TrEMBL record, chains A, B:
SMART domains linked: HTH_MERR (SM00422)
Keyword NADP found: no
DNA-binding found in the keyword field: yes
InterPro entries recorded: DNA-bd_dom_put_sf, MerR-type_HTH_dom, MerR_fam
PANTHER family assigned to the protein according to its UniProt record, in alphabetical order: HTH-TYPE TRANSCRIPTIONAL REGULATOR ADHR, REDOX-CYCLING DRUG-SENSING TRANSCRIPTIONAL ACTIVATOR SOXR
Taxonomy of the source species: Bacteria, Bacillati, Actinomycetota, Actinomycetes, Streptosporangiales
Residue ranges crossing the lipid bilayer per the database entry: none
GO molecular function terms attached to this record: DNA binding; DNA-binding transcription factor activity
Entry-linked Pfam families: MerR_1
Superkingdom in the source lineage: Bacteria
Record domain HTH merR-type: where: 5-74
Protein name: HTH merR-type domain-containing protein
Keywords: DNA-binding
Amino acid sequence: MGMTGITIQEASRTSGLSAHTLRYYERIGLVPEVGRDAAGHRSYTGADLAWLEFLTKLRRTGMPIADMCRYAELVRRGPETAAERRRILQAHRERVLERIAQLNGDLAVLDRKIDMYYGMESS
Amino acid sequence: MGMTGITIQEASRTSGLSAHTLRYYERIGLVPEVGRDAAGHRSYTGADLAWLEFLTKLRRTGMPIADMCRYAELVRRGPETAAERRRILQAHRERVLERIAQLNGDLAVLDRKIDMYYGMESS
DNA sequence: GCTTGACTTGGAGTGCACTCGAAGGTGCAC
DNA sequence: GTGCACCTTCGAGTGCACTCCAAGTCAAGC
């Protein structure tokens, strides 16, 4: 098993999260304890990075940290929590859809305003 | 000119912003000074409400308060700032488009994950 | 004329999600 | 063997956008 793993700096570059944030996420239980190398330094595996990538998607779509912690906790508890996890993601999915619809509506208003300014400039 | 105006509570219900937030927005110069009735209470006009509605769209689409203040300042300075306002809105529009694209991408991942959970449950 | 309730102000407090600082350990380059 | 870069922990600090509080004013109803 040559799963060497990468340093926190490399994980930071790969994930787009700062090293500070990576430690913070681990501290609050959002990320399971990351393995260590001989020097006691964190060593991120591919699985760690995949989990971080999924977390950033949840985060970016507006899921609060507290909800993400709850989801992470269910993952730790094992496969019998799959149905609940699905429900959480589905509820979140609905919120994201609403958000996208709202953004599209607001974008239309923005476009009309921009057009109006063009009209003012060319008059 | 029978522009009576509505109370801060009614403006709160109409705009979806709390009375606290309405006063806060006025304090930081995001909303021009609202008129007062005989008792010194704020009296919101239709124009005030329209401005608030536009502000909430900027806010909801992720524009920081500081940028909104800058935009509001340009509006106060008059029509000669129209071109700059347009540029601000256009730059913002680009960010909103990116945000929507990102949300759609993240939504697709969410959907695949949900499908995966369905697969786990039915197996 | 007194209670009630909505309003006023200025300033302080809150919640979220980081973000940073201090003090110290480790291993490689010179 | 010592400087250096990078890591560690713990706790404190930051920035944003509100959100609330205390103390006071005012008009209307009983």
